[in-house]
Each structure stands twice: as C-alpha cells, then as structure tokens.
Write a structure and sequence with these properties.
Number of domains: 1
CATH class: Mainly Beta
CATH topology: Maltoporin, Chain A
Largest sheet: 27 strands, mixed
Shape: globular
CATH superfamily: TonB-dependent receptor, beta-barrel domain
Number of helices: 3
Strand content: over 45%
C-alpha cells in the first residue's frame, strides 16, 4: 500500500436542526462563519432542498455509526441493509431515491469538502467516519453541480468536522455491549496560538452476531466478527483576519469476518488534505477556497465456498491511489449576486491481485487487473437575489478519461492464459442545474429545481469480478458513464415556533444505469441498462418545544428499470425499496437525564435484478438513555433493534444473511 500525507479542511453547513429541513435559525452555539469552517453557503442553496443532521443526533444514535444516522433521511440507503459491522466493505455504496442497487456510491460524499469514496471501488469507508468527530451532515437529494458535482447523480452528502465551539479540550467514550463488543473513542483538542488542533482515535471490536439463520448454519458458520481502529488529526491556523489554512490526516484499518470461518476482509487507508480559505473582508475582496488531497487505500477479501467451506478465491491485495483538488473563486460582483467559478480534478488508479482455488486447495488461476480514470471540470454558478425571490443556476463542463485498463490470468504454473488490454476512452460532458426559491411568506418557502449529472464507472465495475457465493458477478471494461436528468419541486413551511414541515415531489431518470444483470445460472455481469426511472414524494417534519424534540421523514419512490426487450423491463431495481420511513422522539434537557427512541421502516425490496430474492419489509426500534453523573460525565445505555426484528440483508436463491439483532450497550461518556 502506498504511503501518503494528507491535509483536510471544512465546508460550512449553516444552521443545524435535528434531521429536519432547513431550520428557521441556526441553533445556539453554531456560528454561521467560525474558525475551521468553509465559505458560507450561497443564498440559492435551499432551492435544491436539503436535510440537516446536527451533532447531538450524530452522537446520539444507538449504534454509534454514521451510516445508521443517515437513514434518518428517508430515501438514503446503503447497497445492503447491513451496516459496516457486518457488510463487506466493498458493498458500502450510498445512494438516494432508489436509483438501483449498486455497491458503488451514486451519491457524492464529502468530508470537509473532500470526496471520500474509495478510488478503486467507490464505496464509503464508514468504519473510519466516527460520529464523535463530526459537527453536522447535510444531505441534498438530486443531481449536483459546483465543485466535484460530476459524481453527484443521486445527491450529495456533506460531512462537516466538529469546530472549535463543539470540541471540549478532552472528550472520550467507552462502551461494552452484546457479543463481547467494545467501542471506545478519545479526542484531545488544544488551542494552538490563534488556531486549534484535534487528535482523535477510535477502536472497536466484537465477537459478532450470527448473520446466518439457525436452520442454515453448519460447522464452518462463523459470526460477523470485526475489529477496526482509526486515527484522525485536524489543525486550523489563521494567516490573517480573513484567511486560514486547514490540514487533516486520517489512518484507518478494518478487519471483518462474514458468514464462514476464514471469509475475512480487510480495508485500510491513509488520507491527507490541505485547504486554504479566504472569506470576504470589510473590503469585500475576492473569496477563495483552494483544496488538495491524496488517498492511499487497500482492500483484501477471502471468499469461502458454501458447499466445500474451503477457500475458493483470495482477493489478496487491491492497492489504489486517489489524488485531486479544486480551486473556487468568488469575485465581488455586487450585493445581489454571489458568483462561484472554479476548477476541480480527480484521478484514481488501482489494480487487483487475486488467486482462485480448487476444492483440493490448489491454485487454479492467478489474476491481475486494473487501470486508471480521471475527471476534470470547469464550473460556474450564480445566485441572484431579487427581493423575496432567489434564482440560482450553474453548469459544469467535464472531461473524463478511462485508461491503462488490463486483465491478466495465469495458470498454476504461472503461464499467461488470458491477456487483455482495453482501449483508452474519453469524453466531454456538459451538465448543469437551475433552481428558484420564493420566500412566499414569513413562514413559507416554495422551491423548484432541475438538473443533469453523470458518473464515470469505477475501476471496480470495469475490471474486478466478485463472488458472493454461489453467484459470480463479472466486470465489464466497456461500461459507459451514467447520465442523470431530473426535476423536483417542494415547499418548506414553519407553521409555528419550533415546527418545520417539508414536502418534495421529484422525477429522476438515470440513463445507461449500471446494474448487475443476470446472464446465466448463478452468473451476473455489470451492464448498462437503458434507464432507471424513479419518481415519488418525500416528506419530513420536526418540532421542538423545550427539551422535547420530534422528527420524522418518509419517502415513497416508484422506481422501474427501462430495458425494452429484456426480462428486466418494468421491474423494480435491485436493492430499491418503494417505502422508507424514520422517526425519532427525544427528551433532551440541558441538565438531567435524557431519553430518545428511533423507529425505522424499510419496505419490500429485492436482492437481484429479476426479483427472485425478496427482502421482506422490516421495522426496527432503537433507544438511548443518558444519565449525568457529575459535570461532564454521563452514563449512557443504548439498545439497537430492541424488538429483535428479523432484518434480511441478502437472499440469494434462499441463502439468507441477517442484519443486526437486538444489541445492548452500557458505557460512560466524558467531556460532552
């Protein structure tokens, strides 16, 4: 694995409310522009609709995992229902609006403005995204523009690191749970001159729960054991009154066992970034946001046969490197306009090394495949304020390349039996978005937007086959980029103090959608289908009165595959539920005991493209109770899936995997 140095930064999310749509005012303690954040959001941003998750919710979920909190925003989902304790890391793709099951993320996920998807696979390393080090999350559904917007075909998830005001000098948490599970985290955040730094570490491990139903277990069946750790560093230093530099680095390592003894996976990474922010001074000078980052990632995975229970495939090494950056300028063009112009680029390269085994234990084939891809774009966006009306619009022009693709296979003796070199490809794609936001009354806003987008296939989709026994999914070096067209309209209403309601209707069409298409018994291949069309409604609401808070969201998505002449035509995309809902009731006094309960529902969805493997609807209940013991110290009890509902996460020909059962935690929290 390559060694790198990384420097990171932050993107501002103004005003955070508990998983609700655009709060009326920022909560106390969260400034609009403070040291360690990015540039202020443009006034037209709300035209595209968004949901905000604040720090108290991020750190108050029963599982202690970011990916589970994201499910508060109905319609946001991982490829599978399992979280990063019992999912294969390469299956942790994030998507929105049921645009089809794919282990690659169709949503752009940013951490302090830096794209964090794996450069080879496109999955999100959720095990390294500890909620304790985050300040807020903003989820924007629909296609994106602006910086790095070429990857936002299903929306954008912006993760923001905790700022100075949210970080005590020392904080920590330790918890013990079911299945001999341990979670621990500690952070130290001293002031350094006029700036500050944060050093954070997290470790967790578990003997794991059984993901295999009792009637399908054999002697080789193993629980979903895991062990992972991450270390993160971030520093913010002012250069002058309007300018600061932000640097960050992340190192993580994760080990998991899935279904059978010996079916082990490992993911690891070393990320670094540096960011320069210049905000508008009293002279209304140019604003600047300059960013550079590098990622060094690795992945390994062992596949065990479900019939012989022996190693059948050893994906022993998949090194990958990602580099990129952006430069965004905001010239002073007058009080009614906010103009953003800039350039960004991303480059990814990687290769896999794997060995196939016979039932006797002998190696039957050695494979090596990989390549590189890049996307570079110019973007511009302007927000024009006309009294109570804000018009926003922008566009990108991107050049993408796929190059150096190859596949080699050798026999046991090392003689090359297959050697393919794939032609380099490139293209230029224009995309854009427009929106309007009308402040119709003091408590009502009406918005509408339309957008286009595209996504280049990942190196994983192009070159790496994989096996979830007994099904083999082939790669496809000829995949074309996905292209999105969409539109939506909605309202945001604050009917009375502390209450918010939002409603959005949408239509999205993902052309040349990449799907795992069945081409034979236990055999699939990644292919472009004509389109996936998703239309539906999203509703959310929140209400807070004193210490009592209620939030809820619901998404109905009518999604179908369009593939004329194919068996897929008219079917529901794989891993795409029509219904998703979430609700949280919380009692959160400033002092004294706290209690929250979260109810989540996922509707019927299917494992595969032909709808032969149903995943039944499921409703789960989580709860968290907090008891302050003394100033800055609290006892925390957490319960996941308290009703012990059966969560089916995989159904391949009747071979079932299960998600998190009832899991109880008890721990101590210090410093927050």
């Amino acid at each position: 694995m390559h060694r790198s140095t990384f420097f990171a930064a932050a993107l501002l999310v103004p005003g955070c409310a508990l998983a609700q749509e655009r709060p009326a005012d920022p909560p106390a303690g969260l400034d609009i522009v403070v040291l360690g954040t990015g540039l202020a959001l443009p006034p037209g941003t709300p035209a595209y609709g968004s949901a905000i998750i604040d720090r108290s919710r991020l750190t108050g979920d029963a599982s202690g995992r970011v990916e589970d909190v994201l499910a508060d925003v109905a319609g946001v989902q991982q490829f599978r229902r399992s979280d990063s304790r019992s999912a294969n890391p390469s299956a942790q793709g994030l998507t929105v609006r049921s645009l089809g099951g794919n282990a690659t993320s169709r949503s752009l996920v940013l951490l302090d403005g830096v794209p964090i998807a794996d450069p080879f696979f496109g999955y999100i390393p959720f095990n390294a995204l500890s909620p304790e080090r985050l300040g807020a999350v903003r989820v924007t559904r629909g296609g994106g523009s602006g910086a790095f917007g070429a990857a936002a075909v299903a929306g954008t998830v912006e993760l923001v690191s905790a700022g100075r005001a949210q970080l005590p000098p020392v904080a920590g948490e330790a918890a013990y749970g079911s299945f001999a599970s341990v979670q621990s985290a500690v952070s130290v955040s001293p002031d350094i001159g006029a700036g500050y730094a944060t050093v954070f570490g997290r470790f967790e491990r578990s003997d794991g729960f059984q993901t295999t139903p009792a009637d399908q277990r054999v002697a080789a069946t193993a629980p979903a054991r895991y062990r992972d750790w991450s270390t993160w560093f971030r520093a913010v230093a002012p250069i002058d009154a309007d300018t600061e530099v932000q640097a960050a680095g992340l190192v993580f390592d994760d080990h998991r066992t899935l279904r059978f003894a010996g079916a082990d996976s490992r993911s690891q990474g070393e990320d670094a970034s540096i960011r320069l922010i210049r905000r508008p001074g009293s002279d209304r000078s140019w604003q600047v946001d300059a960013l550079a980052y590098v990622q060094a990632r690795g992945f390994a995975n062992k596949v065990v046969s479900s019939t012989t229970f022996r190693l059948t495939l050893d994906q022993r090494r998949t090194p990958a490197t990602g580099v990129g950056g952006k430069l965004e300028l905001r010239p002073p063009v007058g009080p009614d306009h906010l103009l953003r112009i800039g350039v960004d680029t991303r480059h990814a390269e990687g290769e896999l090394f794997e060995d196939a085994y016979a039932a006797t234990g002998a190696i039957t084939a050695r494979r090596n495949a990989g390549g590189s891809s890049a996307t570079s774009g110019l973007f511009a966006e302007d927000d024009w304020t006309l009294g109570s009306l804000v018009l926003t619009g922008g566009g990108r022009v991107d050049r993408w390349t796929i190059s150096d693709g190859f596949f080699r296979e050798a026999n046991q003796a090392g003689r090359i039996t297959t050697s393919n070199d794939y032609p380099d490809r490139s293209g230029i794609v224009p995309t854009g978005r427009v929106g309007a936001l009308l402040h119709a009354a003091g408590s009502l806003e009406v918005r509408a937007a339309a957008y286009t987008g595209f996504r280049v296939p990942t190196l994983n989709e192009l070159y790496r086959p994989y096996v979830v026994f007994p099904v083999t999914t082939q790669a496809n070096a000829g995949l074309q980029p996905e292209r999105l067209k969409g539109a939506e309209a909605g309202i945001d209403w604050r009917p009375f103090g502390g209450a918010t309601l939002s409603l959005t209707g949408f239509y999205n069409r993902l052309g040349d959608a990449i799907a795992n298409v069945t081409i034979g018994p236990n055999l699939r291949q990644r292919r472009n289908v004509d389109a996936i069309v998703a239309k539906g409604v999203e509703a959310s609401g929140g209400w807070r009165r004193g210490a009592l808070a209620v939030t809820a969201s619901y998404a109905f998505t009518d999604a179908h595959v369009r593939a004329p002449g194919s068996a897929l035509d008219g079917l529901q995309p794989a891993q795409s539920p029509r219904h998703a809902a979430s609700g949280t009731l919380a009692w959160e006094p400033r002092h004294g005991p706290g209690l929250s309960a979260t109810l989540r529902h996922i509707g019927l969805q299917y494992e595969d493209d032909l709808q032969t493997g149903p995943l039944p609807p499921v409703t789960t209940l989580d709860a968290v109770a907090t008891l302050p013991l003394r100033h800055g110290v609290a006892l925390v009890a957490r319960g996941e899936n308290l009703t012990d509902a059966t969560v089916v996460t995989r159904n391949s020909g009747g071979s079932i995997d299960l998600g998190t059962p009832r899991t109880l935690w008890i721990g101590v929290r210090i410093g927050r």
